[in-house]
Amino acid sequence: MKFLKQSLSLLLSCCLILATAPGGFAAQVNQSVAQPPVQSAQQTPEQLQQLVAPIALYPDALVAQILAAATYPDQVVEADRWLQQQTDLKGEKLGQEVDRQPWDPSVKALTEFPSVLANMDKNLSWTSSLGDAYVNQQQDVMNAVQVMRDRAEKAGNLKSTSQENVSKQGKTIVIEPADPEVVYVPEYDPWLVYGEPIGIWPGWYSYPGLFLAGPGIAFGFGFGIGFFGGFGWGWHSWGYDWHHHGIIFNHNTYISHSRVFVNRNNFNHAGGFHGAGEFHNGATRGFAGGQHGFAMPHAQSGTHSGAFSGFNHGGVARGFSARGQSSFGGGFHGGGGFHGGGGFHGGGGGRR
Question: Which residues does 58 contact at the CB level (< 8 Å), separation at least 6?
């Protein structure tokens, strides 16, 4: 009898535990779901000035392409690696192959400037930070570009040359190619060219062909844009509306459809965060093995191909966007030569 009572008591205890456990587990799950996602802090004007320093003195349309493409760091990696494997393609044939790729028009446009694209790949933490800042602080980013141009001008390092025209529209400094068919990418030290030295971006890799030791600016070879001119993503499709602080693409305001970065300014209370525009269905996939520890992803129809694991459904980038991490460590990798876009044009450069 005593044994039966003990057994019955044990059985009732077990039933009581099983009856109350689901409620406790549900409470824990609900509490976890209710927690808001972690949001990154807005960057200060000084941080944004440091962030845009490497590109602030580029022609306006190139700045627009870079900012737009920075919202697709996964595609930047894919395009740069793809371009390095297409050394046999030149001119219009290269443009035709680029046109077939599933990349954003901004990423396609940067294939006209392989050194710029390769620099974004090599300095991937900087690229992703730039894309995140543009998604969430667009006006602040463009204000930072103007602040840095003003500093370079006052330091005597930004003025019109035979390669580019520097003009003012009110207080806005505009930079355009002197020849509309030839684009020169200025070479300079982004941490010295603005007068008073600024902090070097952690882990920054000074890409050959874009970096000049010393405080001045020089020009090398110009990029002819004729062969890519017939495509809708080519050079003449891009510009910047400084008045409204917006990128212009094909005479309209450019909207990024990237899912990589959370747009913290547009919180969707019904379903979390929206990214930098309308979403395309698709998921990011991680690289494994291959060059620099990555293997080339293959795009799926109807999706934007992804290059990184570490994204949640809201598009939050983790890991690679952390400041202070260089993209793949030291060493120079490919991408230095110009593969298309109409060939090189003599620089007539020199430091200024």
Answer: 66, 175, 185, 186
